[in-house]
Structures are given as structure tokens and as C-alpha cells.
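Hi F.,

I've been meaning to write this up properly since the lab meeting, where we talked about keeping a consistent format for the predictions we share between groups. The idea is simple: the sequence comes first, exactly as it goes in, then the C-alpha cells exactly as they come out, then a line or two of notes. No screenshots and no reformatting. I'm using this chain as the first example so we have something concrete to point to.
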Amino acid sequence: MKIRVILWSIVIFLFVTVFANSAQSATTAGTMRYNASAGSMEFFDGFQWYYFAGGLPLGFCSKEGEIDYNLLLGNYQFCNGTLWLQVVGVPTLTVCSSPGTMDYDSVLRTFLVCNGLLWVNIKGSISAS
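Output, unedited:
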């Protein structure tokens, strides 16, 4: 009887462990990545992949997927392998004071970037991914 209880405990433990690991491997909201086929940074909002709102190219680069904060312009930029592309967005009415801080807002399901004065919503269009 004790052996049967122990065996069932082991079976249940293994089932729960496999189930938990498969659930953790799913993409979570706030996951950010570089999409090489699209040449763009994107993030997952819990339902869909979105591109970061892109702006004009500014300067040359060579490390595809690299992301950097441009203190002079007050925004992030990423390298598409050839050019630095500016990440632009819509300023919110929320004040901030730490330029370059990037935060995922789980309520708005978007990334916000502090430009030193206001938080900027950088959610772009839906990704083809």
C-alpha cells in the first residue's frame, strides 16, 4: 500500500513538473527580441508581437540587434546591421526623471521609455511574427 502511494506521488510530481516547465517556456508579456527577418526590435504584450515604433535612420552601425540609448536625442536606437534606427513613440503625461529607463507596463501592455522629462509609449504596429 505504501509503495503504491509513493509511486502515485512520483507520477503526480513528474506530471506537475512537466506541465509547469511547458507553461514556463511559453512567451511571457514583456519579452523583447530582435527580429532579423524584419530588421526590427519587437516585444510580446501577452497576446501578440509588436514592433517598437520606428523613426528615421541616423548613423552607421554593424552589430545587428544591438540596442542603445542616445542621451543627446533622448531615445533608444537599434542597429539593423547597417544603420541605427531611432525608436520613437507617443509621450504620455506622466513625468519621469531617469533618462534611458525602459519599463514594461503590464496594464497598458507596452514598453515605456523615460526621455528625462516624460514617459514615452514606444508600442508600434503588430509584428508579422
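Notes:
Residues 99 and 116 are 4 Å apart (CA to CA).
The first helix runs from residue 2 to 25.

If this format works for you, I'll send the rest the same way.

G.
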